[in-house]
Structures are given as structure tokens and as C-alpha cells.
Amino acid sequence: MMRNPKWARYWKSNTVIRVATLGSLGNFKAPGTWGSAAGVLIYLVFFYPSSELVGALLMLASAYFAVGICGEAEKRLKKVDPGEVIIDEVIAMPICFIGMKSFIADGDGAFVLIGGFLVFRIFDILKPFGIKNLQRYYGGFGVVVDDVVAGLATCAIMNVAVRLWLG
């Protein structure tokens, strides 16, 4: 079991909550959907133009950051896996598009991005294949790990589907 990183406890409550909820985006109706949409945008701005190595390092760093922020937000909000905390969806979305860069570049970007978004939302809402059991882990790790695994499952499905559909 992973403990929450200590660095986030030194941040002001307002800052932790604003980062965890992406300002007030987490307070909108269907916050996970808004967080996932923000994650697609983050993918396009930061991950898509990057090399695979830089993308992998960004994914690891953002997951570590999200664990710290989500764990601290849980404490400050006095809730377990609060719905308004959406940074976990944001950092999970780029995982969905691993191996998809060439299809996006070849003009199938809308199909890939919308498909990945929809498949991820299904996994994030339904939490099949034991994904729901991952939420039992403590703190920020428990908040983030189910979304990361949903992103990996989405990535696997998208890679198979895109290669079968688009060749």
C-alpha cells in the first residue's frame, strides 16, 4: 500500500482543493465527464507532441502528483474519493491514447479521441473487471489507481479496435 506523499500536506487547503477539482470544474454536474474532457485536452497539448519517453515520464509524474493532491483533498474535504475531485480522470486520459499517435496523425483523430473518451467513461462509471475493488486502497493511491487501470483497459481495447477497424 502506498502512503500519500508528504509534500502536499504543506499546501494551503484552498490550493489543494482548487487543483484537485480543476478550479470549479469538479463542481459541475457530471464532474468525471468534465475531468475526462480536460484530460483529452491535456493529452493533445502536452502528450501528443511529445516523444514516447517524454510522454511516459509525464504520465508517471502526473500520477505521482495526482496521488499527493487527491490524498490531501480527501483529508481536507473529509470525504473518501470525493466526486468533485477530478484530477484523477485528467491524468488517466492520456494513458488511454498510448499507441494511438499514428492514427491521430493519419486523420483519424476525432474517431480515436472520441472513442477513447467514451470507452474510458464507461470503465470509469461501471468499473468492471475488478476495477471497483481498487478503490479500497488508502488515500490518494486509492483515488487514482482505479482511473489509471480504467485508462489501461481503455488503451488495450482502443489499440485492438483501431487496428481492426482502421487497419
Order of helices and strands: HHHHHH
Number of domains: 1
E-strand count:
0
Shape summary: globular
Average pLDDT, to the nearest integer?
Answer: 94
Structural class: mainly alpha
N-C termini distance: 41 Å
Give the radius of gyration: 16 Å
Quote the beta fraction. Answer: under 5%
Q: Helical amount among residues, as a percent range?
A: 55-70%
Sheet having the most strands: none
Q: What's the total helix number?
A: 6
The residue ranges in which pLDDT falls below 50 over 5 or more consecutive positions are none
Describe the 3D structure.
The protein has one domain (10-166). The longest helix is centred in the C-terminal third of the chain and has 28 residues, at 139-166. The protein has 167 residues and is mostly helical. It has helices spanning 13-20, 31-47, 52-77, 87-96, 101-126, 139-166. The radius of gyration is 16 Å and the shape is globular.
Give a summary of the structure in a few sentences:
With 167 residues, the protein is mainly alpha-helical.
Quickly list its features.
167 residues
Write the layout of secondary structure elements.
Layout: H1 13-20, H2 31-47, H3 52-77, H4 87-96, H5 101-126, H6 139-166
